[in-house]
Amino acid sequence: MKIIYILWLRQVKKYLRSRSRIIGSLGQPALFLIAFGFGFGSVYAKAGEGSYIQFLAPGIILMSVLFTAMFSGIEIIWDRQFGFLKETLVAPVSRIQIMMGKTLGGSTVAVIQGIIVFLLTLLVGFRPEAGSLGASLVIMFLVAVIFSGIGISIASLMEDMQGFQLIMNFLVMPIFFLSGAIFPLEGLPYAIEVFTKLNPLTYGVDGLRGFLIGASHFPLSHDFLIIFLVAGLLQALGSYLFSRIQI
C-alpha cells in the first residue's frame, strides 16, 4: 500500500503546487457556464423547463472531471520520456500497485478540480436543491476513475506526447457532448440516443444531476450500477495494458 500512497501523493502535490494549472483549467468551464448558461437560458425558460443554469451546472462539473482525468494519462508518457517510469517499473513492486497509485492520484486531482468548478457554478447562480453532496462526490470519483483508466490505458500504448493529446482531444469532446450534459435526454433521435446510452459519462451526469437538483432521467441506482461496473472494467483493462509496458 505504501507505493500506492506515494504515487498518489506525488500527483496530488504536483497539482496543488501548480497554481497556473488550477487557474487555467477554470477557463473552459467558465466559458461554457456563461456562454451556454446565459446564452440559452432564455430559450430554455421559454420552453417551460426552468433555469438552464440549474440543468447545465452538473454537466459542466463532470466536464471538468472528464478532461482532468483523461489527460492524467499524459503523466505516464512524460515519466517514460524522462526516465522516472523506468525507475518505477524496475522497483520490486507490483505493476498493478503502480497503476492503482497513478489512477487514484489522477482521480483525486480530477475530483478536486470538479469541486473547484462546483464552487464556480455557485458564483454564476447555481443552487443545489437536493443537497446530497456526499453521494455527488462518490459519483465524481467513480467518473474520474473511469476516465483516468481510459487515459492510462491509451498512454500505456503510446510514446508520443503529441499523439496522445490529439487522441484525447478526439475523444473527450464527443464523450462530453453526447452525455446529456448540455441537452435533455428526452426525445432524442434514435442514433443520438444510442450513443448517449453507450456513453458512461451519461450516467455520471444523470446521477450527479439527480443528487444535486433532484432531476434524473434514469433511476439513480441504475446510474450508480453502470458507472461502478464500467470503472471496474476499465481498471482491469488499464492494469493489463500497463503491465505490458516494455522498459
Number of helical segments with 4 or more residues: 13
**Integer average pLDDT:** 84
Report the order of strands and helices.
HHHHHHHHHHHHH
Distance between the termini: 23 Å
Q: What are the low-pLDDT stretches, counting only 5+ consecutive residues below 50?
A: none
Fraction in beta strands: under 5%
Q: Assign a percent range to the helix content.
A: over 70%
Q: How would a crystallographer describe the biggest sheet? A: none
What's the number of domains? 1
From the spread of the alpha carbons, the general shape counts as: globular
Query: Pairing-aware structural class of the strands and helices?
Result: mainly alpha
Number of separate strands: 0
User: Roughly how many Å is the radius of gyration?
Assistant: 18 Å
